[in-house]
Amino acid sequence: MTAPNELRLLPWSGPEGKPCYLSTDDRDGYMSRLADNIESVQLGMAAELLKQAQKVLDDSDAEPEELRVLAVGLAEVLGDTLRVATSRGGRLR
After folding, report:
1. S-S: 7 plus which of 2, 21, 39, 49, CB 3.0-4.6 Å?
2. Is the dihedral of CA 90, 27, 39, 6 positive or negative?
3. CB-based contacts of 15: which residues, under 8 Å, 6+ apart?
4. Is the pTM for the entire model greater than 0.85?
């Protein structure tokens, strides 16, 4: 439960990449459930990309462009995962 004076970091960014926050103590509210669902999707995407990364990195013939695309994807999901971890860590306090 979010304390009245605490905000939940949402799993998406606002304009210009700035963080978005939710102020509520209703964990079953629409926005809370939406954020939970998006976090779940983001973590699932990270897990899938990790599997793909392991396959590409095991391939000694992987092309530089393939590795670059992989690195871009990994950087993106790492950012999402860190945002989820930060948000959830803030709610544990």
Report:
1. 21
2. negative
3. none
4. no
